[in-house]
Amino acid sequence: MNQPISGNRRQAALGFIFVTATMDVLSLGVMIPVLPNLVKMLGGGDTAAAADWVVLFATTWGVMQFFCSPILGLMSDRFGRRPVILTSIFGLGVDFLFMAFAPNLWWLFVGRIFNGMTAASFSTASAYVADVTTPENRAKGFGLMGAAFGVGFTFGPALGGWLWQFDHRAPFLVCAALALCNWLYGFFVLPESLPPERRQPRFDWKKANPVGSLHLLQRHPGLLGLAGVGFLFQLAHNVLPSVFVLYMGFRYGWSPATIGLTLMASGVSGIIVQALVVGRVVKAVGERGALLIGLFSGFAGFMIYALAPTGFLYLCGLPLFALSGLIQPGLQGLMTRRVLPNEQGQLQGANSAMMGIASIVGPPLFLLPFAFAVRHDAALHLPGLPVLIAAALMLAATALAYAKARPAPAPEPQAA
User: Which of 119, 135, 214, 371 has a 20 to 30 Å separation from 98 between CA atoms?
Assistant: First the structure.
């Protein structure tokens, strides 16, 4: 399995990485409707206090990812994608075991630190896709990654909400088992995608840090602007794991099981977009057009989520928001065209570092206004305040993409 793939096996490898990514996201999806409730339970049942704890957990995870993602990205360029993916999956499994047996909130905190240090499976899988696809078919390949994301979030939240009814620790034990199965699958089945001759000749610590990642974004024309679009999108997207479980429970009175089914419906919509819409849209309007459509659809969907006074009207926004699934295939397609094969891991490490910043800034940006809105609901009547902030960020990302998302110049080789 450590031998690099070639020829027709490159297309088959997409199937391998799809399964790996799906199992990874499935385990995360199981956690979404139950982790905030576990925090709330361990914290004494106070919704506002639970929001404050979730801020601490998410911010800590983001700090770890910010500093460690560039290291893991460069490691995948130097040593291959496979060992980094396996390391990340192992870290995810350890985190779930901490959640399953945590007697208090501080044990959860330790698990978040460990997971943040190793969280690179999805970003390295994106570099894997770039390795085994041509630039012309790359957006379709990233659409496959989006489909994996959709499958995981279709069944994961519903499974998590269902398991929560029987035992509050069961969802996390199932997640740990899924991570173990994912690791075993990767160890025995997943081949390497980056041949030795295309790897970085050495591991340079000057590049393996957030500043080095920023230098990569500055070195290639147009890449920094696209990274800014990705950052605004990721920052806005942080509203989903940060407040949506608490928001839907508070505003609409939904149980974890109902929230899980709602997230399942969102996932089904996302799968439909990835399977039936992404390829056609990219072919018709290009990667830039797909990116702009996805960003504006995300803005409109967030507006509906924020202002919907009833659960039924909230659900009406699901199909529109699902079109935000066009964002990542379009954005990743534009970005990966601008770097060399032995820089794809660095690029994804830089993207993950930006995601880490978004994970640091996002939770307080959304959870603190939510806590304020909940505490002053009688006077404010605006529990959707954090979602309105996310909508504004998505609109800003749309404007930046309109200005910066241009056809990619060919990257120039850099001296070793």
Answer: 371
